[in-house]
Design a protein that fits this description.
By secondary structure, the protein is an all-alpha fold. Helix content is 79%, strand content 0%. The protein has eight helices and no strands. Helix 1 (2-22) packs across helix 5 (81-109), helix 2 (29-50) runs antiparallel to helix 5 (81-109) and helix 2 (29-50) runs antiparallel to helix 8 (145-174). It is elongated.
Length: 175
């Protein structure tokens, strides 16, 4: 679903930005990145609601005498694949607001001699963020899956508000 969404949504997002630009209402790049973080938070809100009522991992593992597939199947019937398709769709929109715009913004504001290094730092920060996703399964061992997704919502919201707090300063830096 994700590759399809990237290919399908890229021209749509570009068209929306062009439409806004023609009307003089296009948000700045830092604002677009903040909006992207808000969109990512919304994607995880979808997962919170999609996973309400699902058991903790310990509850699934406690059902002795059954295979893992037999223990999990009744719960998986409550969650349709469309929840994941929706997640990928929304996260792809968020990614298109954040990733290419962020890399472009870094190259715009970085000093000429440090552009390559700063772009590497942007990509390294992206890799670090992806690497930290292992925290989700660790949390799920202790709390419900909906609470785990709630933590992702909170982290995205904090990132969005941090970016919103810096928008004016970043807009000044780019001029």
């Amino acid at each position: 679903a994700n590759p399809f969404c990237v290919v399908f949504l890229t021209p749509v997002i570009i068209a929306v930005f062009a439409w806004l630009r023609n009307r003089g209402k296009e948000p700045s790049t830092p604002m677009k990145i903040a909006i992207g973080m808000g969109i990512a938070a919304f994607a995880y809100v979808l997962m919170v609601f999609g996973s309400l009522g699902l058991p903790k991992l310990a509850e699934v593992q406690a059902q002795g005498g059954l295979s893992f597939a037999e223990r999990v199947t009744p719960w998986l019937l409550l969650v349709t694949p469309w929840v994941m398709v929706g997640l990928y769709f929304i996260l792809t929109v968020a990614e298109l607001f954040i990733s290419p715009l962020g890399l472009s913004f870094v190259s715009k504001v970085a000093p000429q001699k440090l552009q390559g290094l700063m772009q590497g730092c942007w990509l390294g920060a992206t890799a670090l963020g992806n690497g930290l996703l292992f925290i989700g399964p660790i949390l799920y061992k202790r709390i419900s899956i909906s609470a785990t997704w709630s933590i992702f919502v909170i982290v995205c919201a904090i990132s969005m508000f941090a970016m919103l707090a810096m928008v004016k300063w970043l807009e000044r830096v780019t001029k």
